[in-house]
Specification:
- 24% of the residues lie in helices and 47% in strands.
- With 83 residues, it is α+β, with helices and mostly antiparallel strands.
- The strands form two sheets. Strands 1-5-4 form a three-stranded antiparallel sheet. The chain has a two-stranded antiparallel ribbon with strand order 2-3.
- Strand 2 and strand 3 (29-31) form a beta hairpin.
- The N and C termini lie close together (11 Å).
């Protein structure tokens, strides 16, 4: 069995100046029409982390920006090597 490490990254709304997502006063958010340039920006962020071994678990959108939750295998370590 593999061991994992986890990371949570913050991406402020200003990073995605053209991204259109709407949040109600209750904090419920949904995506609107996203310009191609913003899709490419998110895709670049995902690919950059992916090349470093990180797997995206979840993205949470809010009025102040995005939280991304990642995990990756701790190289060379497993439950068997520790036991």
């Amino acid at each position: 069995m593999n061991l994992y490490e986890y990371k949570i990254t913050r991406h402020p709304a200003e990073t995605f100046e053209e991204m259109v997502y709407f949040c109600t006063r209750n904090g419920d958010c949904k995506l609107g029409n996203i310009p191609v340039s913003q899709i490419e920006k998110i895709e670049g962020m995902l690919n950059e982390r992916g090349r470093s071994g990180w797997e995206l678990l979840q993205v949470s959108f809010g009025k102040d920006g995005i939280l991304a939750f990642w995990k990756r295998i701790i190289r060379g370590e497993s439950i068997e090597t520790i036991a």
